[in-house]
Amino acid sequence: MTQSNYEPRPEHRFSFGLWTVGNRGRDPFGDAVREAISPVDIVSLLAEVGAWGVNLHDNDLIPFDATPAERNRIVSKFKKACEHNGIIVPMATVNLFFHPVFRDGAFTANDAGVRALALQKTMRAMDLGAELGAKIFVLWGGREGVETDACRRPDEAIKRLREAVNYLCEYSIDRGYGYKFALESKPNEPRGDIYMATTGHYLGFIATLDQPDMVGVNPEVAHETMAGLNFMHGVAQAWEAGKLFHIDLNDQMPGRYDQDFRFGSANPKSAFWLVKFLEDAGYSGPRHFDAHAYRTENYEGVKDFARGCMRTYLILKEKGEIWNADQEIQEILESISAGSEDLPSTSDFSKANAGNLLKHHFNIDKMLGKALPYERLDQLTIDILLGVRQR
After folding, report:
1. Residues in Cβ contact with 167 at an 8 Å cutoff, skipping those fewer than 6 apart
2. What are the sequence ranges of the domains in the chain?
3. Rounded to two decimals, what is the model's pTM?
């Protein structure tokens, strides 16, 4: 891959949210540092930096209290901007965390009226996404949690969440939207504890749904890293289960608040293994950057941020190709996987196979004597990442 090939192209399927490049830099300790930028202007910005898609929450585009006429006018203008700039909308989602009415949760709230409102709002967001051409619908339960478990039993919350997701699946079927739902986990923030804390929690939950084939996950780098977990391992489990419907790329320092750094800026080695896994596995979904520019930046800096996310991904993709083609690395991989050729079958159980396995004699001394040069393998990886080992 040459320098020019670090430029994004549509086949890379890079997308950003209206809420990411449109983030004004407000935080709990300080007000906004950038002027508001309209969704139409965000689409133009994304086209300028070479993105493929734009994603949105319902209220990123349409104000919470907009009239039907205002809603239709805004959507029409936005669709024209996307068509003019060659930007598609691959994913839509719903904001069930900002408005104060959802202070006790949305789908899991104690008030049945709030739960019904959350369903109505989500259905309308699904209508919006379908109108814009989205086929993936993400659900992040940012307020689905507690500060004190005195407020409700957690198993009741899970039942309420299941009821809501089942309802939304049926709504998609009834309307013919063809949505694939992607559930996004997070351990905490903005709630003290969020019920579905990790990707693994959701993988277990999905199996209990009425339409499990319609529902997968949307893992996010920062959210799993906040929990102190190896993000790539969670992604791999979701992929192996056929449930990696979408992915949120950013970066994060462990043990911190949700930082949403530019992809690869904090942990480039972890980002490398993630990119290598996605590319080697053949993941063909959107590479969505759910990240924010530093609060110090103006909108030229926001463009630098967006370009940097995509450029880093493509650089790491090239590093993965170098790693796969490296002769010494491949020889090490072959050696560590080599074993006895006279082993009894362990791929399928049968009485005969089980009997052969029970009778088999293992040469444990030989197994213990086998070299596992992982230090060398890891250093070769570092050499590639630092650019001193090339093709």
Report:
1. 119
2. 3-323, 327-385
3. 0.96
